[in-house]
Amino acid sequence: MKRVIGLVNARWIFIAAGCLCLAVLSGCDLITDPKLLMKPPELLSSQQSLRSAVDAYTPQEMRLQTRDGNSISSIQTADLNNDGNLEAVVFFESLKGDRNAQGMILEEEGNAWVVKQKFEAAGKNLLSLEYKDLNHDGKKEIIATFGVVDPTDPNTLAVYAYNGGQVEKILQAPYTIYLLDDLNNDDLVELTTVAFKQNNYNTVTCYQIKANNQVEPLGHLELGNSINGYLNAIAGKVTKNKHGIILDASYLTHSAYSTLIVLNDNKLVNVIDQDDNLNDMPIRSSDVNDDDILEMGRLRVPSGWEKVILDKPPRFLDYYQWDETAPSEDLKNMKLIKEQYLDPEGRFVFNFPDDLKNKITLDPNSVIDQYLRFVKLSDNEQVAEIKFIPASQWESSKNEWSMLKRDNDQIIAYKTNYGSDMIKKNIR
Q1: What is the pLDDT of residues 181-226, one digit of tens each?
Q2: Looking at the chain, which terminus has fewer C-beta neighbours within 10 angstroms, N or C?
Q3: Using alpha carbons only, what angle is made at residue 371 by residues 370 and 373, rounded to the nearest 5 degrees?
Q4: What is the chain's Cα-based Rg?
Q5: Dihedral, CA atoms, 214, 215, 216, 219, nearest 10 degrees?
Q6: Which among 245, 233, 291, 290 is positioned nearest to 272, based on CA atoms?
Q7: Is the pTM of this model over 0.70?
């Protein structure tokens, strides 16, 4: 029996020695200090900390309202008062909808967000929120917009100033559209609102925020109120040296027109007559040639098609820049920047090369949706052809034509022998 016990003990001594040997050879410790298994908790990220603070400070019977549903990640942060610390602005809406939203400013202090100010909002539900230094004092104003109950009424815009310890509402105004741009070249950003209610009013007002947060209305303009509404609004350069605002409005059933507004001597002026810029379909104004100047579009019937009656007649789309030196408000005295053929179905656009502006028409023998032939007005010289080819016939046609795009069971193709490279880059 002693011999058996001795053998067992010897066996365990052998196993223990083997394990010790393996541990030495592998460089590993058999016993790990429990303290080494414990890691300090990772610090909360700024966004996680913000989420925790917002959850903790949400008022009773209210819920967080942001620009993107209820996502905390959509909350913008910025150093509003230029003190080196980040702030976040949040709004809470009433669950019952019986009162205005409550605004709250939180500031990041170390690894936590703390509430600095609470204030009543200018409306019940937040639509948009952005921060912008409007008076060049190094501090960002809060621009918030709020919806109203009646969808036909303008919404509400409010501008707040935050100075570290106090929120001040410096402007509240009705708005349908608002734009930010330096309209009078004084290096300050003006805030312009358009407040529209169909068949009632259509008012444009330009405001400037002074260094002491005083608001000065710079201009006021009444426009026609018989439009359906606005399709597009854009602010920026309208000439090389002047900024302005272009409003693209829906009119009647399918018509539309563009209004160009500038600020002259602190007076808002509509410089384009509506009748000279009326289109039978909506056209969005934009910078079409990437020269940092905005253009307005005008549809016209190609020469030779004036008496042709079609459900979807061909259209050339001309883009113009305003010429402030022109003696007349007529669109004809504006500068033609780009001319293009607009496919009635919106499948492609043919931008005419600059050296052919006002020199091209669509051959009257062309057949819409079958074959288009673009020619010079002067001598009928062919510039380009566009053909709609059944997909089943493409293999036998592709050596002669270049594919523009596939449209269901047909190929839209083109060919040209006039400035081939230039034509190709202008058809898209």
Answers
A1: 999 999 899 999 999 999 999 999 999 998 889 999 999 999 999 9
A2: N
A3: 160
A4: 34
A5: 170
A6: 245
A7: yes
